[in-house]
Amino acid sequence: MANVLESVGERTIEHLDYVGSLNIQWWATLRAMGQSLPFVGNRYRWQATVRQMLEIGVDAMPMVSVMAICTGFILAMQGASELRRFGAMQYVIDLVAVGFTRELGPLLTAIAVSGRSGSAFAAEIGTMKVTEELDSLRVMALEPVEFVLAPKYLAALISVPCLSIISNFFGILAGGLFMFLSTRLAPPLYVHYVFNSINLRDVITGLIKSVVFATIIAHVGCLEGFRVRGGPDSVGRSTTSAVVKSTFLVIVADAVFTAIFYFTVKP
Q1: Pair 12, 111: CB distance under 8 Å
Q2: Is residue 185 within 8 Å of residue 84, measured between CB atoms?
Q3: Measured between alpha carbons, how far is 160 from 158 in angstroms, rounded to an integer?
Q4: What span, in angstroms and rounded, lies between the C-alpha atoms of 267 and 260?
Q5: C-beta of residue 235 within 8 angstroms of C-beta of residue 127
Q6: Domain ranges of the chain
Q7: Is the pLDDT at 46 greater than 80, yes or no?
Q8: CB neighbour list of residue 171: distance below 8 Å, 6 or more residues apart
Q9: Read out DSSP for 200-222?
Q10: What is the chain's Cα-based Rg?
Q11: DSSP, residue by residue, 51-71
């Protein structure tokens, strides 16, 4: 029994230490982010932010779009298979539009970015740690958080909400394609029903989630890279850990925010 309690206590302390490290890193990044802003910040930091935006956002657009199209088509088919029995096919439009705007769009985007960019952050910073490049930056009076993490975080804050909007668009488009093929619903009429289903609260909810997901992915990936110890094999472990932890925390955060909006926002 004592061994079990000791093990549980150690794991609890490890998790609390990890959460504390994420908070400390987040505050340090917010203080250093001014150097990555355009016009008022350092020109080279802003250029690094633009490069990260291209890698996080533009390069991920095909993957996010295909995932959204497939998921939207599947969601529409599954919803129609049940709603058809009640003669309520029009509610498939509500299911796809609201489901993507509130939940699936930001969540699919976060999972895709976590697998692509979160792992890349951990691998890049972990390699810099192994090759002692981070120590070289400190010797040159350059703070690694400002030089490495802040541009990545700012780029993620901009790119992930934009990708979520793209995911919403293609997911709803796939739902429209299904409705046209199954019921011959005209595209203009489908668009009219979609705008009637969605309200501003749904859009704001999805964007808030996207910002939180971007924060989780960027900081978990970078923290795993900063925590690399040992040789090149530890870089691989940190990359795997970054994807697993960021995906898990994204899903937990999504559940928490959904519960908050459900119990606090009146329909």
Answers
A1: no
A2: no
A3: 6
A4: 13
A5: yes
A6: 40-262
A7: no
A8: 68, 69, 71, 72, 75, 96, 100, 104, 105, 108
A9: HHHHHHHHHHHHHHHHHHHHHHH
A10: 21
A11: HHHIIIIITTHHHHHHHHHHH
**Tokens representing residue 45 in the block:** 């930091």
Q: How far is CA 20 from CA 16, 23, 118, 239, in A?
A: 6, 5, 19, 20
Residues in Cβ contact with 50 at an 8 Å cutoff, skipping those fewer than 6 apart? 155
Give me the residue label for tokens 């046209």.
180
Per-residue pLDDT tens for 164-191? 999 999 999 999 898 888 888 888 888 8
Per-residue tokens: 263: 């119990």
Tell whether the model's pLDDT for residue 43 goes beyond 70: no
Q: Work out whether the CA dihedral 39, 31, 27, 223 comes out positive or negative.
A: positive
DSSP state, residue 228: -
Contact by Cβ (8 Å): 217, 110: yes
Read off the pTM: 0.89
Dist. CA 193–CA 171, nearest whole Å: 15
Distance CA 209, CA 197 (A): 20
- Identify whether the C-beta of residue 76 lies closer than 8 Å to the C-beta of residue 175: yes
Comparing CA positions, the residue from 143, 160, 151 lying closest to residue 36 is 151
3-state helix, strand, coil in the chain (%, to 5): 90, 0, 10
Spatial distance between the Cα atoms of 75 and 184, rounded to a whole number of angstroms = 18
In whole angstroms, how far apart are CA 40 and each of 31, 35, 45? 14, 7, 11
